[in-house]
């Protein structure tokens, strides 16, 4: 029983070590140097959405005279 436990422990540890070695040998990814959109574009889009909501909310309702 002790031999089986030692064998299983060795197997588990060896797979962990091999995974660590394989991960460290891999080529690291290259950084992305593209810039994101400017902050003013986000603010402009937010303003357009806000203006759309305001314009829809101030539109007169088309109700009949009997309401």
Give me the number of helical elements.
2
Q: Could you say which overall geometry the principal axes of the C-alpha atoms support?
A: elongated
Structural class: mainly alpha
Helix fraction, binned, reads 55-70%
Give a quick account of the main beta sheet: strands, pairing sense, barrel closure: none
CA radius of gyration is 32 Å
State the low-pLDDT regions, or none. Answer: none
Distance between the termini: 88 Å
Structural summary, described in words:
This protein is mainly alpha-helical. Helix content is 64%, strand content 0%. It has helices at residues 2-25, 39-57. The longest helix has 24 residues, at 2-25. The mean pLDDT is 82.
Secondary structure layout plus pairing:
Layout: H1 2-25, H2 39-57
Short description:
Helices cover 64% and strands 0% of the residues. The chain is mainly α.
Question: What key phrases describe this protein's structure?
Answer:
elongated, mainly alpha, 64% helix, 67 residues, single chain, 2 helices
């Amino acid at each position: 029983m002790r031999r089986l436990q030692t064998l299983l422990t060795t197997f588990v540890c060896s797979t962990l070590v091999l995974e660590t070695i394989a991960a460290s040998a891999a080529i690291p990814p290259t950084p992305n140097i593209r810039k994101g959109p400017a902050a003013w574009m986000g603010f402009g889009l937010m303003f357009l959405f806000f203006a759309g909501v305001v314009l829809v909310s101030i539109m007169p309702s088309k109700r009949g005279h009997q309401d």
